[in-house]
Write a structure and sequence with these properties.
The protein is of the alpha/beta class and about 280 residues long. The chain is built from eleven helices and 13 strands. The strands form three sheets. A six-stranded mixed beta sheet has the order 10-9-8-13-11-12, with helices on both faces. The longest helix is centred in the middle third of the chain and has 16 residues. GO terms for molecular function: lipid binding. May bind long-chain fatty acids, such as palmitate, and may play a role in lipid transport or fatty acid metabolism.
């Protein structure tokens, strides 16, 4: 029996992908104008960015215990070996909730094989890990082997982020409001990366063109065998920037493939419109 893959909406893969690959989908939630909405089901990323541009404050929340209970119990009752690739535990309580519900379900179904991997990844870095897990499942690999391979893959995933407007990071407490104000005046564009699951400031650069050139330099410094990788780009409702970045990556590295999608509502609610993120591996798998 193939291992069943479970993922949450913070992986920023299009919802159609889950149906095509028979992956269980767990939506995180956003609160907008007092209404609780399920990511990708009740609301799409562009709606979030449009609302943020108009001044709306967006709050996010993890997948609910009930959502986990329903998915895990259904799979347990069918005795389907399963693996859940979770959003970084440093950015959401979703992983911790999943572990709690897993223990509850195992009390009723002690033979249920369910592994939960804390990806320590976000957006399409997380999404590439889900794709990798799904590919391994489709090839018939056993649960333990998939778990080990996905954990190794996630450790090698690089995330390089930049944002267009520092104000949104200030709202979320990532930087001070004074820094955001001064940065805006000076056209400062921060580069951030993910370190052990946390979003960490890396550099401050003046102007978008210089930021893009610096991203290419970082990819050269950190990436391994980029010509044989699928590199992912996610964007906060800025397709033009994503296309420009894609062209620069193609010219520099000629990768096997470049996958582009929105930064989803959950991450985008904190990073804001104009966010651009690049994901690649720093070692071979």
């Amino acid at each position: 029996m193939k291992v069943h893959i479970i993922a949450d909406s913070a992986c920023d893969l299009p919802i159609d992908y889950f149906g095509e690959r028979n992956i269980s989908f767990l939506p995180l939630s956003v609160e907008m104008n007092g209404e609780q909405l399920k990511d990708q089901i009740d609301i799409k990323p562009k709606q979030i960015y449009d609302a943020m541009r108009e001044g709306s404050t967006i709050k996010t929340s993890q997948a609910s215990p009930l959502q986990f209970k329903e998915v895990f119990t259904d799979l347990a009752s069918k005795e389907v070996p399963s693996l859940y690739v979770a959003f970084s535990s440093e950015l959401s309580g979703t992983y911790q909730t999943a572990m709690m519900i897993r223990n509850e379900v195992l009390e009723e179904y002690p033979n249920f094989e369910l592994t939960i991997v804390d990806s320590k990844c976000a957006s399409l870095g997380h999404g590439l890990a889900v794709k990798y897990a799904s590919d391994l499942s489709e090839s018939g690999r056993p649960l333990g082997e998939i778990e080990a391979a996905v954990k190794d893959y996630c450790k090698k995933m690089e995330h390089i982020f930049t944002v267009d407007n520092l104000e949104y990071l200030a709202r979320g407490g990532r930087i001070s409001k004074t820094s955001a104000f001064v940065g805006g005046l000076l056209n400062i564009k921060p580069l951030l990366h993910v370190e052990d699951g946390k979003l960490i400031p890396l550099e401050k650069i003046r102007g978008r063109k210089k930021v893009f050139r610096r991203i290419i330099e970082i990819m050269k410094e950190r990436g391994v065998n980029l010509q044989n990788q699928t590199i992912a780009i996610s964007h906060g409702d800025d397709q033009d920037a994503a296309n420009e970045m894609k062209a620069m990556i193609e010219e520099a590295f000629s990768p096997k493939d470049i996958y582009i999608n929105y930064v989803g509502a959950v991450v985008g609610a904190h990073a804001g419109p104009g966010t651009l993120a690049i994901f690649f591996l720093n070692d071979t798998i």
